[in-house]
Amino acid sequence: YLSAELAEQRGNSFAAYSTMMTIARSSRDPRIARRAAEMAMNSKLTVEAVKATQFWVEVDPTSEEAAQVLLSLLLITNQAEDAKKILAKRLANSNAANLGSVIAQTQRHLARIPDRARATSLLKELLEPYRNSVEAQLAMAKSALDAGKAADAMKESRDVVSKNPQSELAVLSL
Would you say residue 50 has pLDDT above 90? Predict the structure, then answer.
């Protein structure tokens, strides 16, 4: 452990990460897996950061922080299909009380994808089971607007208002 920390201090990033990952794999300690991921991210070793974070999630599957970091890394490294699986699981595990916020988070996460059309397409696929909810329709409108499709965004917003005239969020989306 100490040799990895010293290697990092001396600027030998890959050796530090590699040593820390070896220790993490042998110990299966989530704290060490997290540290390996941090070392990789701090050194801008994105491929290694994804691997370390995937291992962190594996050894600590209940860690929201690990899942969040992995999701962010997958999105910034353009691994949208892998990110889609995580987002679909989050949506499926949500309940009526938090579905709206999970849908909004999903839209915000996908907004990080440089290809806006791809982001909109993924969001549409993910939100299909929730398509009739106000939150899903508003998320689709926001995604369309982010993709530069103002007409589609306006159409989506108008549809939401026509179906839910009492919804303040729907009216504000116009």
Answer: yes
